[in-house]
């Protein structure tokens, strides 16, 4: 099964080119823009993630279908209410997935790929993990709600396409009501910041309401410094994809107690024995 988002890839690539050219003809000293090696790495990570996604999506839809058969009722795809429920349910699932992947190191090892660039542009949106299986448990409840699996996959693709457009410095703050309800480039720039005030903030996908509700929202204020608190320092796609898994494994092997080993895997990134979460 070909992931639905693949059909948007030509448009993604075209828009990356357009945005890169915009920096060529309309430079802005306050924006980081593009750097060739960084962009090639991001595009390579995106291509690799889509190759891996083909067999994984096939396995995913089988698992969704199995759970769907256990649902006490099946919602109608012809009902607008089903699609509205799906929008909110999918976005809450994404918020939960995203927050967990920032707070649990073994999950962060997958998601850290997306935060590893020192730039913030449309190509950064394509810098995706090569271990997508960590997200499966967060969407299975939607199938148990009686939402058809094909609808879940479509909404996931819609969310990913929407989020592509969040990765830009070329768009400032939008109309205030939009900023209040929806995730925007301004909100997402905060999420990609390594500034202390911006760490673990603005997890939303399409909506920003979950962050406001669960108190993880932070407005854009001071200039955002992109990347990680400890940057990976390489453009090698293999190292970008797996460097945190390697670091976690080394920490687990060096730990003297099982409790510490569990902490290195299931504690937050940066956890050390005796540290507070």
UniProtKB/TrEMBL annotation:
Organism: Streptomyces rameus
Primary localisation category: membrane
Keywords for this protein: Lipid metabolism, Membrane, Oxidoreductase, Transmembrane, Transmembrane helix
InterPro entries per UniProt: Fatty_acid_hydroxylase (IPR006694), Sterol_desaturase/TMEM195 (IPR051689)
Protein name stated in the entry: Sterol desaturase family protein
Localisation: Endomembrane system
Domain Fatty acid hydroxylase: 83-216
Pfam families: FA_hydroxylase
Highest taxon above the source species: Bacteria
């Amino acid at each position: 099964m070909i992931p639905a988002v693949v059909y948007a890839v030509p448009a993604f690539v075209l828009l990356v080119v357009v945005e890169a050219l915009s920096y060529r003809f309309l430079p802005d000293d306050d924006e980081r823009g593009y750097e060739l090696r960084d962009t090639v790495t991001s595009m390579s990570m995106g291509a690799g993630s889509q190759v891996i996604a083909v067999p994984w999506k096939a396995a995913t839809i089988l698992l969704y279908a199995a759970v769907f058969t256990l649902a006490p009722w099946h919602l109608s795809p012809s009902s607008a209410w089903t699609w509205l429920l799906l929008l909110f349910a999918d976005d809450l699932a994404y918020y939960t997935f995203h927050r967990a992947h920032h707070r649990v190191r073994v999950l962060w090892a997958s998601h850290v790929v997306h935060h590893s660039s020192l730039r913030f542009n449309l190509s950064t949106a394509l810098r995706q993990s090569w271990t997508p299986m960590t997200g499966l448990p967060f969407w299975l409840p939607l199938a148990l709600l009686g939402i058809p699996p094909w609808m879940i996959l479509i909404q996931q693709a819609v969310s990913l396409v929407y989020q592509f457009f969040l990765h830009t410095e070329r768009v400032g703050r939008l109309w205030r009501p939009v900023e209040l309800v929806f995730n925007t480039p301004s909100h997402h720039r905060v999420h990609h910041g390594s500034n202390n005030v911006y760490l673990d903030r603005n997890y939303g996908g399409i909506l920003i309401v979950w962050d406001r509700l669960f108190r993880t929202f932070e407005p854009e204020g001071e200039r955002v410094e992109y990347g990680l608190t400890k940057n990976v320092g390489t453009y090698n796609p293999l190292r970008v994809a797996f460097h945190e898994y390697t670091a976690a494994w080394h920490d687990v092997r060096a730990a003297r107690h099982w409790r510490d080993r569990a902490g290195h895997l299931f504690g937050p990134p940066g956890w050390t024995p005796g540290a507070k979460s």
